[in-house]
From TrEMBL:
One of its GO terms (cellular component) is keratin filament. Pfam families: Filament. Gene3D superfamilies: 1.20.5.170, Single helix bin. This is KRT84 protein.
Length: 182
């Protein structure tokens, strides 16, 4: 049996090694290509995310400013409401005080009016009484004047008292003066 072939193990190992190196090189190239494509995808995604993050940060800054402005406005509105409530309470208190004073003054004025009416009624009665007394006195004066004139006419007609019949009127009455020598 002379089948002995020389096996060239070094050549086979070198072929297998070359094949494995070729496979490893291709695998590395594929991995590198895959890695670079994934890296590029991640870089693009990171860029988009960075842009999105910057936009979100800007939006957050805007919203923060809006929230701060609204917070100031709310605080201002609350302060203004407190001031208005205090002013309303003060106005209400002053109004109640004014109404109370006005009612008190009205009561005083009504009392004074009643007193004035009572005084006026009393003065009117006194005036009416005085008017009645004056009328009665005027009637008496007229009556006495007629009596005096009648008596004077009678005396002159009888030739009694020698009197000067000239009458001097003074303050609504007659005054007589006797003749000289009487």
């Amino acid at each position: 049996m002379g089948n002995s072939r020389d096996l060239n193990l070094d050549g086979i190992v070198a072929d297998i090694k070359a094949q494995y190196e070729d496979i490893a090189r291709r695998s590395r190239a594929e991995v590198r290509a895959w890695y670079e494509s994934k890296f590029e995808e991640l870089r693009v995604t990171a860029g988009r995310n960075a842009d999105s993050l910057q936009g979100t940060k800007n939006k957050i800054a805007e919203l923060t400013q809006i929230v701060q402005r609204l917070t100031r406005e709310v605080r201002s509105a609350k302060d203004q409401r407190c001031k208005l409530e205090a002013a309303m309470a003060d106005a209400k208190q002053r109004g109640e005080s004014t109404v109370k004073d006005a009612k008190h003054k009205l009561s005083e004025l009504e009392t004074a009016l009643q007193q004035t009416k009572a005084d006026l009624t009393l003065q009117l009665r006194e005036y009416q009484e005085l008017t009645n007394v004056k009328l009665a006195l005027d009637v008496e004066i007229v009556t006495y004047r007629k009596l005096l004139e009648g008596e004077e006419s009678r005396l002159c007609a009888e030739g009694g008292f020698p009197m000067d019949t000239s009458a001097c009127r003074s303050q609504g009455g007659l005054t007589y003066s006797p003749k000289p020598g009487f």
